[in-house]
Write a structure and sequence with these properties.
Helix content: 40-55%
Strand content: 15-25%
Structural class: alpha/beta
Bound molecules: NADPH dihydro-nicotinamide-adenine-dinucleotide phosphate
Radius of gyration: 20 Å
């Protein structure tokens, strides 16, 4: 991404990403810090706007409007979850779709489902597809099982896997908390994607031998050997799964960094699209 940022900067446009953090949730602060660090390291401009938990919805919407109108801001990301008194859907709908680098705006979600490629795809599922492609995993005709149906991971993940293009063409099953006999489905998967939020729930005996396992989960579990008393773990029980799977992503270090890389990629694209719009406007004058 740094090479792309340098290329655009040489043409006079430095891709800009602004992250908005409301409140002091420690996990959100960590994620936002990682996004800010990565965007700076890639040479982008922007940064994080930190607001108190008492910020009203109107104040946040006014900030989003200001960022929508700022030509140096190509990507806007409002970190979720928001404090209870702010409706996340209202905020997401206020972000201009062409600056929605998180890919959460209904217009971008719709484009993803239809298969239009001019929108932004939610970063975590986009990162999973990139991992599969770069690892030489053939998704065509594969049985892909996604565990989890959230709007930010499970649903867009399934939508990507079913598209008729590279990284897609899979036969997709989506499981959730009401699924009867989860293991029956996971054991059929050539590609198993766990996005559940339950520490180490998928064990080796639930995985088909030779399957590719992508662990999206980011959970904590007690670990007396750590100063904090806890450690990060995924939704997959790594030690039992690694003996059965042909490929598996670790937690931390697998999907997490890819999510950030895709955020930078979306921001670079947002800057490129803004440049194209400016050029078209100049041409029509
Ligand atoms: P959500 O809580 O929004 O969704 C979890 C999904 O898992 C729901 O669809 C839920 O079903 C399903 N589920 C819960 N329990 C079970 C069960 N026992 N059996 C089958 N399905 C179950 O979580 P997210 O999608 O936001 O995140 C999932 C995980 O991924 C979390 O650990 C999160 O921290 C992590 N994450 C990691 C990212 C990264 O960059 N690495 C980015 C985003 C998330 P139902 O809908 O029925 O409730």
């Amino acid at each position: 991404m740094a090479a792309d940022v340098a290329r655009l900067s040489a043409q006079g446009v430095v891709p800009g990403l602004t992250v908005v953090l409301v409140g002091d949730d420690p996990a959100s602060a960590t994620y936002v810090g990682a996004k800010e660090k990565a965007s700076k390291a890639a040479g982008m401009q922007g940064g994080t706007i930190r607001l108190p938990a008492t910020t009203t919805q109107d104040e946040l919407l006014a900030l989003v409007e200001r960022l929508n109108a700022d030509p140096t801001v190509h990507g806007i990301l409002v970190q979720m979850p928001l404090p209870r008194h702010i409706d996340p859907d209202t905020v997401i709908r206020h972000i201009r779709p062409e600056k929605d680098v998180d890919g959460f705006h209904p217009e971008n979600v719709g484009k993803l489902l239809i298969g239009h490629t001019d929108g932004f795809v939610s970063c975590t599922p986009a990162g999973v597809i990139e991992l599969l492609l770069r690892s030489g995993v053939d998704t065509r005709g594969a049985e892909a099982v996604v565990v989890g149906r959230s709007n930010i991971v499970g649903k867009p993940m399934a939508a990507l896997l079913v598209q008729g293009r590279a990284g897609g063409d899979a036969t997709v099953t989506v499981c959730h908390s009401r699924t009867r006999d989860l293991a029956f489905h996971t054991r059929r998967a050539d590609i198993l994607i766990a996005a559940i939020g339950r520490a180490e729930m998928i064990t080796g005996d639930m995985i088909k031998p030779g399957a590719v396992v992508i662990d999206v989960g980011m959970n904590t579990k007690p670990d007396a050997s750590k100063a904090k008393g806890t450690r990060l773990c995924g939704d997959v029980h790594f030690d039992s799964a690694v003996t059965v799977a042909s490929k598996i992503t670790p937690v931390p270090g697998g999907v997490g960094p890819m999510t950030i890389a895709m955020l930078l990629r979306n921001t670079v694209r947002a800057a490129e699209l803004a440049m194209a719009r400016t050029a078209a406007l100049a041409g029509s004058r």
